[in-house]
Design goal:
Elements lengths: L1 H6 L1 H16 L1 H35 L2 H8 L5 H13 L7 H10 L4 H13 L2 H11 L1 H25 L2 H12 L3
Pfam families: ArsP_1
Keywords: Cell membrane, Membrane, Transmembrane, Transmembrane helix
Family: Belongs to the UPF0718 family.
Length: 178
Amino acid sequence: MKKIIKRYRGFLFVLVAMILLILFNQELGLKTLRITGNSVKEMLLVIPPIFLLLGLLDVWVPRETMIKYMGEGSGIKGVLLAIFIGSAAAGPLYGAFPVAAVFMKKGVKFMNILIFIGAWSTTKIPMFLFEIAALGNTFAITRLLIDIPGIIIIAFILSKMVSKKEVQALYENAASID
């Protein structure tokens, strides 16, 4: 029982806080409950398709192929592939992390994983098309031309700042997830 309480202490704390909020300010508490419900509903609509695609990626794409195209020796081809996959992805940023974990299991270079996460968060193709329509070609293209090198530079710096021991621990943790 203690193990369960310890594992879910964050959830239990928030649950108690919401109950107290409803008791002391019913209007605000119910509004908070509605927002929480909408967030949970959104997650339940996004996460199953991502996990389905991850399962297919895990089964259909051999580790050797991922290492060849996005692993340590992949060079610019790995960087471009990470940008393309991240830009073509759909869904909120929290969907990128399970994909990154599968990439780690498949032997993708740490810097390429960071580039993938950066591309997922800033260079999505639908967002780019919306920006062209709403804000104009100049803004959209300028932002993209600044973001892509920025993502690569940040990923490079982070990959150099994080120790090999920490990176190894991340890869081992990802490999243990089934």
